[in-house]
Amino acid sequence: MSNNNLFLPVGFPRAPLANGVGRWICQLQRLTFKFCKNYPSSRGMREFLEFELLDFTKKNPGIVVYVKPRRHRAPNLTAEYLNGEKQIVDCRNFSYEEVKKWVSLLRSQSGRGTVRLLKMWHTDHPSIQGPWSPFVNRDPKLNWVEFPNEDLSQPIYIEKSATEKLIEIFEEQQRIERQPKQE
Amino acid sequence: MSIYKRAQQWTTFTRVWHLFDAKWQNPFESAKIIQKYLAGLHKPIYGPSADTGDHVVVINSKEIALPGDEWQKRVYFHHTGFAGGASWTFAWELHEKDPTLVLKKAIYNSMKGNLYRHTKMERLHIYPDANVPQEILENVTNQIRRPRLIPKRLDEYSEEEVEKFPKLIDYPEDYVIQKIK
Amino acid sequence: MSALRLVIQSTICGTNVLRCHEIFTARGIKRWVAPTLKELERRRKKLGPQPPPLRSSFVEWNYKAEWYSFGKRLHEEFNEHTLQRAFTHRSYIVKEEESQKEAGIENPELNLEDNQKLIVEGTNFMKKYIRNYVSLLLPKFPEEGIRAVCNYLLEDKMLAFISENIGTKDLILSSDVPPEEETLASTLKAVVGALIESSGEEKAGLFVRDFVVTQLVEKDVNDIWHPEDPFTTLTDIMRRDGREIPEPRLINETGRNTILSTYEVGVYSDKQFLGSGSGETIEVAKQLAAHNALRRLFKTTENMLPFSFKMNPYGEHVKPSIEHCSISEWKSKNVNC
């Protein structure tokens, strides 16, 4: 409708570099875990690093993981994508489950960022038979006609009038009378 | 855009010229049909703001047929804006003055009163009889069918048709048809 | 941790984290914050535009981890040493040697090998493979068209785009920072070369197919190349085929005397339909009709089957390479051009 809310840009669903057509690549390049070793706001992240991190790295060898312990700082997840985009998630006071969910979200995103989708689909071949034009399904007999033409002016559907029905009944009668009587 | 895409766009959105013969037709019925062609509603690519309307050339508007006693009863109101400027014109009077106006007003009033109306009306070309300028007739490539059949007058029936027609009753043989003086 | 130090660090890094309790008080922002920020901004402007910092200059960077992940991300097994070589450009070695000489070291010894040989290997392989694959995708396309499509795929612009989106940008060692189009493109070729050395030609072929050839998925081949004078070309082809010369006929038209007129022209050879096209004037429509006819002959119409990116020319069923005729010798039978 309008682009007044420019904090949320608009776009169509697209895959970066035809991802998936050939092989699928995880778009997340680097993940940096910044946390404090003893401040309570980093507790969730510390728990994640203790229990989940090694499994995560084994499952995703294509993502480089950096762990940055920094004292007296709020915990922080920095995701860098293949297209150069950077996303920072502030994890202050997150629970272990929340950190896990955010990590899995960052892993599955394409680096495009949040975009309001105008259409939920995309296709490179919108039409197989070709786009419509006024010449599609046009009767070529019209090319031979001199306008105005009386036959082309007639209505397509003409209801049978009562007179015509009567004439039909009459002719049917005549036909039956004319038939030789079979005895 | 490549040349083919440009040409395809041009072709899909061309404006077509249609012809409509208004002889013996009800202008209000015809208006419903014609305004659809002017709006572009007959096309699958229609969009209200996409300006997909076509041209319509109407001929024989002098010979339109209003239903019932509308010729005598239908009145067109006009006010000049000045005091005492109200006028009421009968349909037959208006038709005498300008034989295209009854049909034109019928089409105009059958459209929604939005800003597209004047653009659509500019694409309507009405002629009172079959004399259309050659340049415009050359543009026409399609004919719109009439909504009604033109009724056949009694004197248009040929003698054979009259004889062949089934008779329900007939005058007795010795009946004398008297001429009215 | 001092509030001022926080301010300075945040302005250098570009982040906007001014939440320290020493800056914000119950009465608002401290008096010294605004003047400090203004001074820092003034000094930054005086320096002029600076290039963005190299990712490898950050504290959180590990070359070995990055190289390992690069290979794993692309689902490929690389020989570590070969991959390192692939990212090292000649210009970087030259620059390093020069800077070492400036520092006073007389015989600079860098244990680095550049990627020249890998680039050459990669380029030759890519040219051959892409030519082969495109030829399989478009069996009836003339030679000029195939060449144009291959050149389109092997352009520096295209390869640089692919290279950037694979993640080579941060790993490249070269004198130009940030890396230019040419450097990115040659890095991709070097990576292909490294892959040939590490995993073999078949794997390298699949890599080229999945990253370079798939860029054709959204492209119409006729946008990349089309014959210049379609009607003359079509006439020549018909003659060579032994068929009647094409005859253009008007099929449809609208609004002849208006500026928005459209004409549809069909091209026929001995009453057999070849193709149709429509345009603003009869001449344009005629050329488009001829072009449409050529597209039908080359089997590159709008509704052609989408390209298959699952073929493996190095696999089990290796098809013999197809010979493509030049447009000046093209025949429908396409045998012995």
From TrEMBL, chain A:
Lineage: Eukaryota, Metazoa, Ecdysozoa, Arthropoda, Hexapoda
Residues in Ribosomal protein/NADH dehydrogenase domain copies: 37-110
GO CC annotation, single: mitochondrial large ribosomal subunit
Family per record: Belongs to the mitochondrion-specific ribosomal protein mL43 family.
One function term, GO molecular function aspect: structural constituent of ribosome
Pfam families reported for this sequence: L51_S25_CI-B8
Native species: Gryllus longicercus
PANTHER family: 39S RIBOSOMAL PROTEIN L43, LARGE RIBOSOMAL SUBUNIT PROTEIN ML43
Protein name: Large ribosomal subunit protein mL43
Domain of life: Eukaryota
InterPro entries from the UniProt entry: Ribosomal_mL43 (IPR039927), Ribosomal_mL43/mS25/NADH_DH (IPR007741), Thioredoxin-like_sf (IPR036249)
Keyword hit for Ribosomal protein: yes
UniProt keyword list: Mitochondrion, Ribonucleoprotein, Ribosomal protein
GO biological process annotation, one example: mitochondrial translation
Compartments, record wording: Mitochondrion
From TrEMBL, chain B:
GO MF, one annotated term: mRNA binding
Family: Belongs to the universal ribosomal protein uL13 family.
Example of a GO cellular component annotation carried by this entry: mitochondrial large ribosomal subunit
A Pfam family reported for this protein in Swiss-Prot or TrEMBL: Ribosomal_L13
Keywords carried by this UniProt record: Ribonucleoprotein, Ribosomal protein
Keyword Cell membrane attached: no
Family annotation (InterPro entries): Ribosomal_uL13, Ribosomal_uL13_bac-type, Ribosomal_uL13_sf
Signal sequence segment: none
SUPFAM superfamilies: Ribosomal protein L13
Organism, scientific name: Gryllus longicercus
Superkingdom of origin: Eukaryota
Protein name per its UniProtKB record: 39S ribosomal protein L13, mitochondrial
GO biological process terms, semicolon-separated: negative regulation of translation; translation
UniProtKB/TrEMBL annotation, chain C:
Keywords on record: Mitochondrion, Ribonucleoprotein, Ribosomal protein, RNA-binding, Transit peptide
InterPro entries, per the entry: dsRBD_dom, Ribosomal_mL44_DSRM_metazoa, RM44_endonuclase, RNase_III_dom, RNase_III_sf
GO molecular function: double-stranded RNA binding; ribonuclease III activity
Superkingdom field: Eukaryota
Domain DRBM: residue ranges: 229-299
Localization (cell): Mitochondrion
Matches recorded under Gene3D superfamilies: 3.30.160.20, Ribonuclease III domain (1.10.1520.10)
Coiled-coil annotated spans: none
Domain RNase III: 70-200
Main location per the UniProt record: mitochondrion
Record GO cellular component, one term: ribosome
GO terms classed as biological process: regulation of gene expression; RNA processing
Recorded family membership: Belongs to the ribonuclease III family. Mitochondrion-specific ribosomal protein mL44 subfamily.
Protein name (record): Large ribosomal subunit protein mL44
